[in-house]
Spore photoproduct lyase family protein (Streptomyces similanensis), 414 residues
Amino acid sequence: MPPSHRAGPGPRLSRQESLFPLGDLYPETAGDPSPETAGEPTPGPARTRPDRAPAPAAPSPEAARLLDVREIHAEPAAAASPRGRQILARFPHARLIEVDSHWRVPHLHGNEGNVERWVRVKTETLVLGVRKTLTTRPNGRSADWIAPGASNGCAMACAYCYVPRRKGYANPITVFTNIDAIIAHLGRHVAGQGVKPEPNQCDPSAWVYDVGENGDCSVDALICDNTADLIRAFRSWPTAKASFATKFVNRDLLGLDPRGRTRVRFSVMPPRDSRMLDIRCSPVAERIAAAGDFLEAGYEVHFNLSPVVLRPGWEADWGELLRHLDDVLPPAVKAQAAAEVILLTHNRELHEVNLGWHPRAEDLLWRPDLQQAKRSQNGDTNVRYRTGVKGPAVQRLRELIAAHAPWLTLRYAF
Ligand code: SF4
């Protein structure tokens, strides 16, 4: 169970003495004292910190909708780091709770009972940790390489999302604060690859690194500068390119000057499916409408046509979506756009969890008549559309793209 206490206004900490002095955490500029703390002595010695984070700007309406952070579970080293301090300063009213490991927050991980609080946990809780394992894995589909992510988890709540299956269902954002180490690792990996020897479907000339495998970098950018730091790093690596899929339009990213070295993949699906499945995400039409602005700001803009959910009427709705792309996207976006198509995979455990909070989604996602078991690369047992169903559906989608959006290069479909 989550702690029974709720955060009141003003910084309140738990077990903070073992972390570091309170005065180091909350800049005086973080806001007026709350009614609750006004008149009380400031805990801990007042001191000047060279790495003091600036006063937090007022959150955008999008940020306020997604994140109302009330409690931050932090490993001590993560909270004490410059990035950790930036985050704590951005959410000055959140209660800080020390944890030994970001993987072991008892009421957050491995507890499907949190299903009743599914969205509230995502809105009100952050976890800060130090990423111990820095490994870049080969991929070959969405990207050449999967980078060690700077976060894990998401404030959005797509009903088909695979991240909570791995993480234990209650799945708020964990931010890894050692972004410098992550970027240093990536710099070494990029240097080690040299120039890409030949084109492939990921990119004709750059090694593509997926930097957002287990979350959404656009949402992470509401919390701290990890996404901005990654984008800046990649713009200085001429042989590499960052890439991340997103379902959230964060216009703050438009000012980061990626100089063509970051690929944003806007995930889209028919709005009829999205309204049922993409919980808390930006509307599909908004994602598509943002594509031109992101291209103009220096991003490469691709699309993820995913997940494709087979249901009565799916072909007509995907045809309509592709016609919408054709109608509204500027010619410059079409000239460089490519897409990946991924048919839905699902999972029995996630199905059971979803029945507890969003059973109507399962009418779309759980189709034993069309699905078969599949052992995934990481050993999980998932379900996917049956052989004999999936192949023809992929072929049909290829035909729809050829008919309605012939300018859209299909990077791969499976
Ligand atoms: S946006 Fe991505 S990471 Fe976030 S819940 Fe949806 S599928 Fe999962």
Notes: The first strand starts at residue 12 and ends at 14. Residues 102 and 129 are 5 Å apart (CA to CA).
